[in-house]
């Protein structure tokens, strides 16, 4: 059995993530995970920017100019507005952060965007336009079964994670490093395979954070370590750097550090910073709003 890697370092930044990450070097992260606030209709402070203002690489700028299937990019935005009158409110906030994430992603890197059913379909179309459809790798469905269930429709019990790679010929993916799952029909495979388990598919059945247990922090939007562990295991190597724009309770940093990866966590919420400080006591406080 191989030895566990030395814990990775964790930097905790307090402040507006768009301003914080603009100080980071191009192509400096192998994995970027974004778990933004879901578009539930709440009013947000908008940053009016588009992909045309990106500090982009030549390749990305070319994609933006070409647009989706040869169409003008701004025309695509107009079409999406016609379908959803909240488009500007939400995507005016999120789009410039996606652009910065792409700038920061290494050539062998992977971007994970975690959304729910309200925005996933819009996100897929917009990200194809921003980054290129050929850079789309997966749509992961995280399914869970907890909480109230509607009796007037099929209960919504899943999130969607869209996965894009910077270079389809160079991205890192290690299926052997990922935790394995039990076979649903173990009698149909050999005993050896049943004991080892199977590689997860793009549908992940995983409980939410248990109400009692080691990893519970009390932070309202906390994601389970098992989901982030699988992402980090698959798309990074020990020593790689991981970035989380909307770090919340710090799950990404806690998991990455335990797996020997360095992590940079950003959040503007002082409550989130306090939770991360308690959860990751060895974290390096690299930035505050007042700096």
Would you give an account of this structure?
- The structure is a single chain.
- This protein is an alpha/beta fold and 291 residues long.
- The protein has a single domain (10-287), classed as Rossmann fold.
- The protein contains 9 helices and 9 strands.
- The protein has helices at 17-21, 58-66, 73-83, 87-104, 120-131, 191-196, 225-235, 251-258, 270-279; strands spanning 10-14, 29-34, 105-115, 136-143, 158-165, 203-205, 241-244, 262-267, 284-287.
- The chain has a 9-stranded mixed sheet with strand order 6-4-5-3-2-7-8-1-9, with helices on both faces.
- 34% of the residues are buried.
- The model is unreliable at 40-70 (pLDDT under 50).
Largest sheet: 9 strands, mixed
Distance between the termini: 45 Å
Rg, Å, rounded: 19 Å
Number of helices: 9
Strand segment count: 9
Question: What is the helix fraction of residues, given as a range?
Answer: 25-40%
The CATH architecture category equals: 3-Layer(aba) Sandwich
Mean pLDDT, to the nearest integer, reads: 84
CATH superfamily: Vaccinia Virus protein VP39
Describe the global form: globular
User: Uncertain segments of ≥5 residues (pLDDT<50)?
Assistant: 40-70
Number of domains: 1
CATH class bucket: Alpha Beta
Helix-strand pattern, N to C? EHEHHHEHEEHEHEHEHE
Q: Structural class per helix/strand content?
A: alpha/beta
In what order do the strands lie side by side in the largest sheet?
Answer: 6-4-5-3-2-7-8-1-9
Which fold does the CATH topology refer to?
Answer: Rossmann fold
Beta strand % = 15-25%
């Amino acid at each position: 059995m191989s030895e566990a890697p030395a814990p990775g370092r964790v930097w905790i930044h307090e402040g507006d993530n768009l301003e914080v990450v603009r100080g980071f070097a191009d192509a400096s992260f192998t994995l970027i995970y974004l778990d933004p606030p879901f578009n539930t209709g709440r009013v947000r402070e908008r940053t009016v920017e588009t992909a045309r203002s990106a500090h982009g690489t030549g390749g990305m700028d070319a994609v933006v100019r070409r647009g989706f299937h040869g169409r003008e990019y701004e025309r695509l935005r107009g079409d999406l507005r016609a379908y959803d009158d909240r488009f500007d409110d939400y995507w005016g906030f999120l789009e410039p952060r996606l652009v910065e994430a792409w700038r920061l992603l290494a050539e062998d890197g992977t971007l994970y965007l975690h959304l729910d059913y309200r925005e996933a379909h819009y996100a897929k179309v917009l990200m194809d336009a921003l980054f290129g459809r050929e850079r789309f790798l997966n749509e992961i469905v995280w399914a869970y079964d907890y909480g109230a269930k509607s009796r007037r429709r099929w209960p919504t019990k899943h999130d969607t994670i869209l996965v894009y790679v910077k270079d389809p010929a160079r991205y890192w993916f290690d299926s052997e490093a990922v935790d394995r799952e039990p076979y649903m029909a173990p009698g149909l495979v050999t005993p050896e395979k049943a004991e080892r388990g199977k590689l997860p598919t793009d549908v992940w059945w995983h409980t939410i954070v248990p109400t009692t247990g080691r990893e519970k922090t009390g932070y309202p939007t906390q994601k389970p370590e098992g989901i982030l562990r699988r992402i980090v295991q698959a798309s990074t190597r020990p020593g790689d750097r991981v970035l989380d724009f909307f770090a919340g309770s710090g799950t990404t940093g806690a998991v990455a550090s335990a797996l020997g990866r360095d992590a940079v966590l950003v959040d503007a919420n002082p409550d989130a910073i306090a939770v991360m400080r308690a959860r990751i006591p060895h974290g390096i406080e690299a930035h505050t709003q007042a700096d």
